[in-house]
Amino acid sequence: MARGKALITGASSGIGEALARQFAEKGFDLIITARRESRLQDLAEALENGGDLGGDVKVQIVACDLSTTTGMDYLLDAIDPSSIDVLVNNAGVAYPGTFPEQNFEDIASLLSLNITALTRLIHAILPSMIEKGAGRIMNVASVASFQPVPSMSVYAASKAFVLSLTESLSEELKGSGVSTTALCPGITKTDLLENLQGAQIPPFMMSTSKEVAREGYEALMNKEVIRIPGIANQAAVTWAKHQPRWLVRGLGGLAARFKPN
Ligand SMILES: NC(=O)c1ccc[n+]([C@@H]2O[C@H](COP(=O)([O-])OP(=O)(O)OC[C@H]3O[C@@H](n4cnc5c(N)ncnc54)[C@H](OP(=O)(O)O)[C@@H]3O)[C@@H](O)[C@H]2O)c1
Q1: Average pLDDT, the chain
Q2: Which domains are assigned to the chain?
Q3: Is the shortest distance between the CB of 229 and ligand 1 below 6 Å?
C-alpha cells in the first residue's frame, strides 16, 4: 500500500525531478506537474514501471503553466486536495541581471510562479490537511532567502518571502498535525543554474539535485522548519547572520559588479 500521496511542482527537471524519485522510492504515489508534458510522462513511466527504482507507485501528470491563473485553475481542477498528504512547492525560476536590465514580463512571471502559485497551492490544500490532522508541506526556498542578492534582486526577495511564509505557518500550525519545511539549497547543478549565464561556479561548490532531494525528504519527515543542505552552505548562512547587514549587502554588491574576463 502507498505511504501517501505527494504533489510535487516543477518535477520535470532538477531538484523537483530528484524529489519525485525520492518520494517514489519511499513508496509515495505522486502528482507531478510542470509545463513540459513529455518529460513528466517519461518520469512517470520510469517510476510506475518500477524501472530504475524498483518502486511500485501511481503517478498522475498535470502539465500546466503555474505562472498563469488559468494554469493554476487547471491544476486545482485536476486534483482532489483532500487526497494530498505531502505538498512540495518546488517550481521556481530565476533571471539574472540588475533590476533595470530585467524586462517586467519576466519579473511578473517570476513573482507569479515563485510566490503566488506557491501561496495559492498552500491555501487550497492546507484546509483539508488541518481537517485530517495530518500533512506536510515543503517549500523550496534558497540560501538567497537569508540575504539580499544584488543582480538577482527579485529572485532573492521572492525566496525571502518563501522562507518567511514557511516560518510563520509553522507557528500558526503548531498542534494541528501539519508541518511546514523550507528547503534552502545553495548552488545546485540544474537547468536553472545553466540558464544563469556568466555564473562561473567551481564544481566542488555545487550540490547535486539528488543530494538536495535526500536532505529535503529527511527534513520534511523530521518536521524541521528550515533545512540548508550542505555544511558549506550552512556555514555561509551562519556567517552572514552574524555580520552587520551593510557588510553582507556590500559584499553582495561587490560580487555582482565583479565580472571575470
Ligand atoms: N539550482 C540552484 O542552484 C537552486 C538553488 C536554490 C534554490 N533553487 C530552487 O529550486 C527549485 C527548483 O529549481 P531547479 O534548480 O531544480 O531548476 P530547474 O531544473 O530549472 O527546475 C525548475 C522546475 O520548475 C518548473 N517550472 C518553471 N517554470 C514553470 C511554470 N511557469 N509553470 C510550471 N512549472 C514551471 C520547470 O518545469 P517546466 O520548464 O517543464 O515548466 C522545472 O520542472 C526552484 O524553486 C529554485 O529557485 C535552486
Answers
A1: 93
A2: 5-257 (3.40.50.720)
A3: no
H or E element that contains 39: helix 37-48
DSSP 8-state class, residue 13: S
Please give the number of the atom of ligand 1 that sits closest to the Cα of 71: 32
Q: Which of 7, 8, 9, 15 to mutate to test the pocket of ligand 1 (most atoms within 8 A of CB)?
A: 15
**Closest to 237 measured CA to CA, from 182, 166, 172, 197:** 182
Active site residue 95: no
Nearest CA to ligand 1 atom 1: 188
Backbone φ and ψ of 78, nearest 5°: -85, -10
Digit-coded pLDDT (tens) for 12-31? 999 999 999 999 999 999 99
Mean pLDDT of 118-133: 98
What local confidence, expressed as pLDDT, does residue 109 receive? 98
142 close to ligand 1 (CB < 6 Angstrom): yes
What per-residue confidence (pLDDT) applies to 55?
A: 57
Q: Is 110 in the pocket of ligand 1 (CB under 6 A)?
A: no
Which long-range contacts does 171-178 make (Cβ < 8 Å, 24+ apart)?
A: 173/130, 176/129, 176/130, 176/133, 177/129, 177/130, 177/132, 177/133, 177/134, 177/135, 178/126, 178/129, 178/130, 178/133, 178/134, 178/135, 178/136, 178/137
